[in-house]
């Protein structure tokens, strides 16, 4: 039963894509069906992008949005990315799907600017397979040109695991993107067993502390110390720090006290439909 398969996939956890080792769909008929449906999702316009605001911790102003993919399945409803991104990765569908997300998100950011709203950063997630596409840099350049968005308003998020898999390769690609003017962010930082001393060789702009740390922040004093150390070391390397998954006032207060710059989390906003995001941007801009 499809729901059971979804539940099972979710259960395996968001940072545990490696568990889907050999072939997900070969082992699980429900996932195979899902993968087949995913093939048509793009052409049937079942995919959609939600936007989650990133907020400046001291002013509360929205400084950026993260594009988060959703699949509006005709029978199953809204399917979460943790369920279908691994399938898209495995089947290679992530490449056209990811390109569509980039195009959609850049287009949206440009549309907000054209509407006279204050310029925002648009963050887009890149999976490992996307990052390894030989024409990634040209694809990004083409999308910026087609949408008319300036490179400085696009931020690409790669996970720590993607970044460290082949540091020399990563550095080459990131240097080209950096030259283009695109911002680079390390996502889910702290979960990939790397260290900032290894990442410092990369041209990075932003470090996103993984939600799992924020979750344990108020119950485990050691975690608070770790977050404090990440923020301080990151800042001394010239990086901007974003805390992911902030849900409680207490967490926010702590993050303020250690001068973390940005926060993203349900305490402020959940991922929003484009309509809702647009409304919020307008209401924020009239308050300025
Ligand atoms: P991510 O890039 O780390 O995105 C942040 C995730 O944390 C999002 O989940 C967001 O909804 C969730 N989140 C944000 N604040 C909170 C909070 O306060 N509490 C809780 N419980 N969750 C919060 P989402 O949208 O389900 O996406 C999951 C992952 O799927 C993303 O993690 C990213 O790795 C991947 N993903 C999403 N969209 C894309 C995409 O277009 N391309 C690729 N390659 N991956 C994507
Ligand atoms: Mg992300
Ligand atoms: Mg993350
Ligand atoms: Mg993640």
Automatic annotation (TrEMBL):
Residue ranges annotated for the EAL domain, each copy included: 31-285
Superkingdom, natural source: Bacteria
Name recorded for this polypeptide: EAL domain-containing protein
Interval of the full protein contained in this chain: 591 to 878 of 878
